Amino acid sequence: MGIGCWRQPLLLLIALVLSAKLGHLQRWKGFQEKPMSKKNMNSTLNFFIQSYNNASNDTYSYRVQKLIRSQMQLTTGVEYIVTVKIGRTKCKRNDSGSSSCPLQSKKLRKSLICESLIYTVPWINYFQLWNNSCLEA
């Protein structure tokens, strides 16, 4: 018997041990209401509003007015379901610094309540918007 005969059973054994270990470590409990850390909250909400503004057809940019609710679930990264109130600002979409823009007043005022599912791997600064829906507030 050569070394090649042991390669497949050994690889299979390694795969079984790894899958058993990972299965033991990954006991996901679903979404739970837990407060986000300030750092994760800021980066996640900044990613969300940037994604929203990039996809929007509105002339003006929006900014987050209030975090209403956040839920998280640990998977291969962190999944957040966030509910936020966003408002139309006086800054055009291409303007930089829209996070500090004042909100519109009177007839151009517009607020939305958005619920979004955001996947993130915070330790490598990776974000992906998986789902988003907004309604007028």
From TrEMBL:
GO terms for molecular function: cysteine-type endopeptidase inhibitor activity. Coiled coil: none annotated. Residues 26-135 form the Cystatin domain. It comes from the Eukaryota. Residues 1-19 form the signal peptide. Keywords: Disulfide bond, Signal. Gene3D superfamilies: 3.10.450.10. Pfam families: Cystatin. Belongs to the cystatin family. This is Cystatin-like 1. The gene is CSTL1.
